From TrEMBL:
Sections of the chain in a coiled coil: 353-380
Highest taxon in the source lineage: Bacteria
Keywords: Coiled coil, Membrane, Transmembrane, Transmembrane helix
Transmembrane segments: 249-266
Tagged with keyword Transmembrane helix: yes
Full protein name: DUF4350 domain-containing protein
């Protein structure tokens, strides 16, 4: 009887702990202050969630990192861009590490005090004394592909440009300025982007100009974008792995609650069983939409890779080969079925170079015809 009472008390305590943990998570996710408006999670009018959610819905892969170390580790992956929001809040040591790094970076300062950011000087227009500019549309006035975004709202300040740098959206009274700037890293191996119109990307302003399109045009050349909000206490430590940041304290509490549950209820785990997990196949519309996004930004090879991957998945399924089959096996099987040259099929399915819209259209058309021909051969 005494043991049963103790067990009941333990279960009650466990339930109380779980409720407290869940309440903490709920309050943490809903009690967003002005300080975290730019975190990418905030749906308030002064938040930036709309910018990121719209990007993800259009095929861009945008991840939000809670720490600079995690963001830096993710950005080391090939074809990644680290977007540092409010970088002027970071410690000097972290800014120095970013300055000397060879990862692609985009800086979105909140204020004009950005001289700490890779020694980047800024220009304050006359209206800066009024704290906020009178909304006005400014043109790109540059020949960069980014200019396709069209006009944007007047930013609070501008970056001063140098001869070797590519800038767009200059101030009317100073042509050596830019609201959007592209340059190279300290050692010239990585890209650096700057945008001074962060306040025009808020949920309440995102539809008022072409600034969202400008950001998406910049991000579109990357396979993944990491969004990180600067924190004055966030020191960047080289060598720290992604795994060390994957389980914050709240998840350790949940794991501890799970262990207590197992102990209290006296459950035993059953033997492990192996089973074939389902393969998640993205929708055709998503794949083609992403390919169109790459094409729009003239990243033809990425677009071609997406088309090839999708058609290879369909073709290997048609001829009864696994998706992991090597290109020689696939080309030979298709050649036996269609009578086409194995060498030409290898080039079509894996190697043909694509450098413009015409070549990309021809590749897509040839792949579609090959898929139809295989289907016709199987039917007969």
């Amino acid at each position: 009887m005494k043991a049963k009472k103790s067990r009941t008390m333990l279960i009650a305590l466990l339930v109380f702990v779980l409720i407290a943990v869940l309440f903490t998570i709920f309050m943490r996710s809903n009690n967003r202050t002005e300080e975290s408006d730019f975190s990418g999670w905030n749906y308030h009018k002064n938040g930036t969630a709309a910018l990121i959610n719209a990007a993800n819905s259009h095929g861009l892969q945008v991840k939000r990192a809670d720490s600079l170390n995690l963001a830096y580790a993710l950005a080391k992956k090939p074809n990644s861009l680290l977007v540092v929001v409010r970088p002027e809040w970071l410690p000097a040591a972290s800014l120095d590490t970013l300055k000397n790094s060879e990862i692609d970076l985009m800086y979105l300062p909140v204020s004009g005090w950005s001289k700490r950011i890779e020694n980047r000087a800024v220009y304050f227009p006359s209206y800066h004394d009024k704290f906020r500019p009178v909304p006005k549309s400014i043109a790109p006035r540059c020949s960069q592909s980014i200019a396709k975004a069209g006009n944007i709202q007047t930013p609070d300040y501008y970056f001063l440009t140098k001869e070797s740098e590519l800038g767009c959206y200059p101030n009317d009274h100073n042509p050596n300025t830019a609201a959007w700037l592209s340059t190279k890293s300290l050692h010239g191996k990585a890209n650096r982007f700057y945008f001074s119109g962060l306040t025009s990307l808020l949920n309440s302003n995102i539809l008022d100009g072409g600034q969202a399109s400008l950001i998406y045009q910049t991000w579109g050349q990357y396979e993944q974008v990491i969004w990180y909000l600067g924190n004055p206490n966030d020191l960047l430590t080289e060598g720290e792995t992604i795994e060390s940041k994957l389980l914050p304290g709240i998840y350790w509490l949940l794991f501890l609650a799970f262990l207590v549950t197992v102990f209290v209820l006296g459950r035993r785990f059953t033997p492990l069983m192996s089973e074939n997990l389902p393969t998640i196949v993205p929708a055709t519309e998503t794949i083609r939409g992403r390919a169109r996004l790459y094409r729009k930004n003239k990243v033809y090879e990425h677009s071609a890779q997406i088309f090839r991957a999708w058609y290879l998945q369909q073709i290997t399924k048609q001829i009864g080969l696994p998706r992991s089959a090597d290109k020689i096996t696939v080309a030979k099987a298709v050649s036996d079925l269609t009578g086409q040259s194995q060498i030409e099929l290898t080039k079509l399915l894996y190697e043909r170079e694509v450098n413009n819209d015409q070549e990309l259209n021809k590749l897509q058309k040839d792949l579609a015809n090959l898929k139809k021909e295989i289907a016709y051969g199987n039917a007969n």
